[in-house]
Amino acid sequence: MLARLKELGLTPAEPFRAGVVAHPYPATLDTDMHQAFELGVVLTGQQDRHFESTVLSLAPGEVWLCAAWEPHGWRATAPRTHELVLQFIPDFVGDEMLGPVSWLNLFTVPPDQRPRADSPELRERLLEIAQEMRQEMHEQRRGWLTTMRLGILRLLHEVSRDWELREGLGRQRIIRPDGPARVMPAVRLVHSNPGRRLSVAEGAAACGLSVSQFGHIFRHSMGVSFGKFRARARLGYVAQLLLSTGLPVESIAQATGFADASHVHHAFAKVYGCTPAHYRTEGQSVREFREYALIESSVPSHPELLEAKRKKLDR
What we know:
Blueprint: H1 2-8, E1 16-23, E2 30-32, E3 37-44, E4 47-50, E5 55-58, E6 63-66, E7 72-76, E8 81-88, H2 90-93, E9 97-98, E10 101-102, H3 105-108, H4 120-139, H5 144-160, H6 163-167, H7 179-192, H8 200-207, H9 211-222, H10 226-244, H11 249-255, H12 261-272, H13 276-293, E11 294-297, H14 303-314
């Protein structure tokens, strides 16, 4: 989603983005895939969050977790739906442990096994934390990024306190704190070369690991193989080019390492649920609205645009 890429796109130099997204009316399904980990809290209304094999129906106080380059979709199912969206690279949160497990464990298990806010008391606590973070994001006082980092950890801590017992997390799934750090050079290599068909050997070399070591540590730390992670990144780049350029699909295929337009068409439809042409056509109007729907952002560099967004929502 181009608007979201513009507002929430991350680099190692900008490891964190946050925003409150408004959906004034129920909407059709929208899809995305991005380099950051994502943690969200529904503030008002109702929405569905779609993953490859899971659909979550979320009410106020409920959360969703999305791993890096994980295809996902969302649909507001009630009017006046608002959500707090937090996106970050692993370096922003660091090597923090939540009891016996790394915070990454919460993101790299299958979507239907990730923690849920399944009690009214827990949802109320999560809403309180989310509203505090929303205020910090708005005021941006000295040290606000530290407060946001701690807010992410508070949210993850609250939803994970009973999670290990409930989901039966096995020791084989526990991620060593240094695992993500060891494969981050390969992650950055993918981010800086989204159109290249990087090999496992290149990823391993960037990390100073053997191919077998690298493959094991990467899958264990990121929840997917390096090959699948790399393929998702290339498709995310395809989506960005579809919305930001007028290049024909054949040219985009060449720029992103696909054999031809047919190859792009098949791979894109499998992940995004529509053809590249449909994504581009619908995106020019739908994603323009989504850009205005981001009513509060951690990047207030253009206050006049923020005011225009608010006015458009009020019409």
